[in-house]
Write a structure and sequence with these properties.
- This protein is mostly helical.
- The protein has 2 domains: 1-58, Orthogonal Bundle (Arc Repressor Mutant, subunit A); 59-95, no CATH class.
- It has 4 helices and 2 strands, in the order ααββαα.
- The protein has helices spanning 15-22, 26-38, 66-80, 85-95, and strands at 42-45, 49-52.
- The chain has a two-stranded antiparallel sheet with strand order 1-2.
- The longest helix is centred in the middle third of the chain and has 15 residues, at 66-80.
- The protein is globular, with a radius of gyration of 17 Å.
């Protein structure tokens, strides 16, 4: 939406269709639609369906987080390899180190992403 690929007024696919197209659970897509509707980015009407209502604001530098950037990069690369969300998440889970194996954090990175 920020890039103009989905301008205001663009009709989005129904939840089940988008979930199937993306390989996600319908509940996940429904939650995202609800959150975007609450933020005023989407509007849903029975006959018109779900449409783009506004362009979302870009997050400020203070809102951006290195973990979110890494996750977005990983998700893009995993999808390019043909993995669905469940497979990609399982790969992260399998690769997750035991607490004793976690190296010291690089400078400027908090041990908890919720600290930001």
């Amino acid at each position: 939406m920020r890039t103009g690929a989905l301008p205001v007024g663009t009709r989005l696919p129904p939840i089940r269709q988008l979930a199937g197209d993306l390989g996600l659970a319908a509940g996940t897509v429904a939650r995202v639609y609800r959150e975007l509707e609450t933020a005023g980015v989407l509007s849903t009407a029975r006959r018109a369906g779900t449409v783009v209502a506004a362009v979302p604001e870009a997050p400020s530098a203070s809102q951006a987080h290195p973990l979110a950037e890494l996750a977005a990069d990983y998700a893009t690369r995993a999808a390019a390899l043909g993995a669905d969300a469940e497979t990609a998440a399982a790969a992260v889970h399998a690769a997750w180190p035991a607490p004793a194996d976690v190296p010291d954090q690089p400078p400027g990175v908090s041990s908890s992403w919720h600290d930001h």
